[in-house]
Design goal:
By secondary structure, the protein is an alpha/beta fold. It has 2 domains: 79 residues, CRISPR-associated endonuclease Cas1, N-terminal domain (Ribosomal Protein L15, Chain: K, domain 2), CATH 3.100.10.20; 178 residues, Up-down Bundle (Four Helix Bundle (Hemerythrin (Met), subunit A)). It is built from 9 helices and 8 strands. A hairpin with a 6-residue loop joins β7 and β8. α2 crosses α3, α5 packs antiparallel against α7 and α5 packs across α8. The model has no long low-confidence stretch (mean pLDDT 88).
Length: 303
């Protein structure tokens, strides 16, 4: 008997993420599992997740990577506690019409400025100052963000000496910075999964540029102080032995409580629409959406 075609869930209907470490990720008896050194299998509901964060000590089989791609779950190779994002495997990827639209907006100076202004408004709850360039808005944003960190630090009664960390020396940073790095990595992971699922390119940013995840940072920053910053500072205040683990669990809960995965793709559409260029019609020879029409996945997912 032939199994029915997989029908990936839309991003908004999924749980945000899980972290896996110290084991072989494989497909056994049709199930996506983590097998530890003693042979104990832990089932991972890959079809119901936006992304799986693979920490050091994991190995991934070809079958597992293929299954994750088919169901639209992003695999992310992360550092210990998720502090760094080394690489990721696309669950979908840019659609030609969405990629051209995103690129047109980024290359048109007026459209790009309009997009950045909309991002600023969504992030801070007020329109940005008039007659400012992208570089000037970036400077204004940086000053406001530093001020917001100070406000959150006072709220949680922790000592804050600024955002300072060395990604190559994880243990050299203070506890608030380590917690914040772990929290933002969680946010970047689920945001990248949503960007790819919507059919856009993570590297084509507007406020950020020149980085593989520039657009991911653009979108994630809109939600950062609403979601992961309070989680990180609360964990730093409590200073438990497994602070990074507490951060990850806190991020999982806040993503669910704020319905983050429901909101990311509509937010992407909102900020890009501010560019004023209009979504172009796909050319006749364009690659169609990866999933068949009856699936409830997002446009970028592969079927």
């Amino acid at each position: 008997m032939t199994l029915p075609r997989l029908r990936p869930l839309a991003i908004k209907e999924r749980s945000a993420m899980v972290f896996l470490e110290k084991g072989q990720v494989d497909v056994i008896d049709g199930a996506f599992v983590l097998v530890d050194v003693n042979g104990v299998r832990t089932h991972v509901p890959v079809g119901g997740l936006a992304c799986v964060m693979l920490e050091p000590g994991t190995r991934v089989s070809h079958a597992a990577a293929a299954l994750a791609a088919r169901v639209g779950c992003l695999l992310i190779w992360a550092g210990e506690a998720g502090v760094r994002l080394y690489a990721s495997g696309q669950p979908g990827g840019a659609r030609s019409d969405r990629l051209l639209y995103q690129a047109r907006l980024a290359l048109d100076e007026t459209a790009r400025l309009n997009v950045v202004r909309r991002m600023f408004e969504l992030r801070f709850g007020e329109p940005p100052p008039a007659r400012r360039s992208v570089d000037q808005l970036r400077g204004i944003e940086g000053a406001r963000v530093r001020r917001l960190y100070e406000i959150e630090a006072r709220k949680f009664q922790i000592r804050w000496r600024g955002r300072r960390y060395d990604p190559k020396e994880w243990g050299a940073g203070d506890l608030p910075n380590r917690c914040l790095s772990a929290a933002t990595s969680c946010l970047y992971g689920v945001t990248e999964a949503a960007v790819l699922a919507a059919g856009y390119a993570p590297a084509i940013g507007f406020l950020h540029s020149g980085r593989p995840l520039a657009f991911v940072y653009d979108i994630a920053d809109i939600f950062k102080f609403e979601t992961v910053v309070p989680v990180a500072f609360r964990a730093a205040r409590d200073a438990k032995p497994d602070s990074e683990g507490a951060v990850r669990r806190g991020c999982r809960d806040v993503f669910r409580r704020t319905r983050l995965l429901d909101r990311i793709i509509p937010t992407i559409d909102d900020v890009l629409a501010a560019g004023g260029l209009g979504v172009p019609e796909a050319p006749a020879d364009a690659q169609p959406p990866a999933l068949n029409e009856e699936s409830f996945g997002d446009d970028g997912h592969r079927g």
